[in-house]
Amino acid sequence: MTCRPVIEQKPEPLTGKCTEEATRDCFKTLRECAQDEKPIFDTTVCCPSCRRVERGCEALAVAKCFASRPVCSDTFKPSYIEGECCPSCRPALPVCGDKGCADGSLCVPLKTGNKCVPTKIIRIFLGAATDEQKAKIKALAEKEAEELIREIVKRFCDKPENADKCEKVKEEIDNLRVRIAGKDDGGANLDIDVGDKDAEGASAGFRFFAAGDSSTVVNGAVNDPSVNEEGYTVGSAKNDASSANASPLVALLVAAIAAGL
Q1: Mean pLDDT, residues 183-201
Q2: What is the pLDDT of residue 206?
Q3: 3-state secondary structure of 56
Q4: Model confidence over 237-257: pLDDT tens digits?
Q5: Domain segments of the chain as ranges
Q6: What pLDDT, in 10s, does the model give residues 151-169?
Q7: Residue 122 to residue 221: CA distance in whole angstroms
Q8: Phi, psi of 210, rounded to the nearest 5 degrees
Q9: Which residues are bridge partners to 182 per DSSP?
Q10: Which end of the chain has fewer surrounding CB within 10 Å, N or C?
Q11: What is the Cα–Cα distance from 119 to 106, expressed in whole angstroms?
C-alpha cells in the first residue's frame, strides 16, 4: 500500500482552478505511479496522487515511442522499462465487424461490445515558434501525430478538475484518429476524428459541441497551455473556411516551457 503524498499546490480560492504554474510545479514533484497503480484524483489539489510514466517525457517523445511499439496481444502485455517514455506495446484498436465502420464513424468499445459511433471532426493547425520545432512537425508521421494528440489529451485528463468528464468519454479519447491534411514550412493541418457514443441518431461529421462530450474534452486539451509544455502552437486549420465550425474553441496556445527534443 502506498501512502498518499502531501500536495501543496491548490486551486485559486476565487476561481476554484489551478494556475498553469501551480499545475506544472505539482507534476514536477510528483512520483511516478507504480506498475498497475491507478492515480487518485482530488479536486482540492492541482495534481493526482501519482503521475503516469509518460509525464516524465516531452509529449512528442511519447508520441514517437508509442508509434514505434508493436500492438499488444494476449501473450504480449505492456510493461515499462526504466528510462523509456512509453510501455513495451500499445493497445490494439477495436474492430467492428468484417467491414469495419463507414465514413463518418469510428469503432468504439462499449459495455455491450464494439460499435460504430458517429464522429465529430476537429480541424487544427499544429505549429511551432522555433525552426527546430517546425522541422520536427514537418517530419511527423501520421501515427506519431495521432499519438501526440492522444498524449496531449491524456495530460489534460491528468488534472483532477478534468478527471470526471474525461472518464465519461475515455473510450472515445483512447480511440480517436488523426489524419495529416497537409503540411507547410510552419507546421501541419490535422483532422482529429472523435467518436461520440451518445450521438445515436444524430448526423455524423461537423456538429455543435455539447458540454462534457468527447469533442469538448479534445478542444479543452489543445487549448490548455498547462499541458503544452513544449510550447507548440495550435490554431484553426489553415486555408479551411469550415474550420471555424469544426473547432470554435481552438485558439493560439501560449508557449510555456521552451524545451525541444
Answers
A1: 83
A2: 39
A3: helix
A4: 877 533 333 333 333 222 222
A5: 101-246
A6: 999 999 999 999 999 999 9
A7: 12
A8: -100, 145
A9: 189
A10: N
A11: 6
Give dist(CA 155, CA 153) in Å, integer. 5
| Listed residue (243, 202, 197, 198) closest to 219, CA to CA | 243
CB 90 within 8 A of CB 175: no
Residue type (1 letter), 70: P
CB 114 within 8 A of CB 108: yes
Helix and strand numbers, DSSP H then E, in the chain: 8, 5
Going by C-alpha positions, the residue among 124, 175, 127 that lies closest to residue 154 is: 175
In 170-255, alpha helices (H): 170-174, 214-222, 243-246
Grid cell 469510428 is found at: 106
* Cell numbers linked to 198: 451518445
Query: What is Dmax (Cα atoms) for the chain?
Result: 54
User: pLDDT for 79-129, tens place per residue?
Assistant: 898 889 999 999 888 999 888 899 889 999 988 899 999 999 999 999 887
Integer Rg of the chain from CA: 18
- Grid cell digits, residue 241: 473556411
- C-alpha 174/C-alpha 21 separation (Å) is 27
Q: C-alpha angle 252/162/59, rounded to 5°?
A: 55
